[in-house]
Amino acid sequence: LLDVPSGQGALAARLKNEGFQVRACDLYPELMRVPDIEVRRGDLSGTLPYGDSEFEYVVCLEGLEHIENPHQAIREFARLLTPGGHLIVSTPNILNVEERAKWLLYGYTSHFKPISPEHIELQRRHSGGKHEIALHINPIAYPELRYILEHNGFHVAGIHRDRPKRLLWLYAPVVWLIRLIGWFASAAKRRERWTDDLLSDPILLGGNTLIVHATKR
Asked: Nearest CA to 58 among 43, 38, 78?
């Protein structure tokens, strides 16, 4: 199993304890705090330092929103996985009902606020030059993520949420209206536009994080 980006190694350590043979990869491998897990330097925007079909599992939690080109990262995951291999990827959920309301009111969502040059410089100083870790530069909605996955030979096996978001019941009338409009679409259009997924609890009523499980065809 490849964990990328691995950060300090908390997830890698837990997966190793679950019985996986874990390899870790990160733009800043010096962050790793787990001494018995191999870690290599790798950039999700480029070519990762592993061979074709080397892994049965790839886990990429909270990584795609930090890079300019998530298409390249998904292409690399497809290259690294064996046929039938599993990819678990997560990214901030910008399509839950609360984030949609914030976009309408403010023009941006909670995790993708306007980034000024001053903010970049502040993050650079506070992170010791590792500002990529803190900056969210690429909001990826579910339709875009699913397109990238399917375009690169993946099948979406499931979508999940980290946890139900608090106080979403306040938006209940809006949720009902969104679902009512969606359900009026024909069955063909609903399949073509992934309407059922977009109206599901993990997306519409999910918390901060959307989790997608995909398998390599």
From this structure: 78
